[in-house]
Amino acid sequence: MLPTLIRRAAQEAKPSNEAWLRRIRELYPPKKVWPPDFKKLSIQEQLKYEKKYKRRLALATARPRWTKFIKLVQLFSVTCMCKIIAKRSNVEARAKIHTQALPPVK
Predict the structure, then answer these.
(1) In the predicted model, is pLDDT for residue 99 greater than 70?
(2) What are the structural domain ranges in the chain?
């Protein structure tokens, strides 16, 4: 299996068939030219395309799993630091109580 993968990786990439690409483009022409020429559009149409582009960009760059992971890591780290600080302050408070001079026993 490994020799096959190495052999295939070492081969040259097949050149794209221009006739096939041309045929596909002829069969399925684009409905609209993207991006449109903004000089020819009215202000309302420009705003519409800007909103559409921003929405598409936001959807394309959204990473919900990554965001959730980062939020959980932040929550975990803050919680751990709070516990560590609380534990240290509790230990220091106990140490102060024990180090105070005890009254003499009568």
Answers:
(1) no
(2) 16-62, 63-97
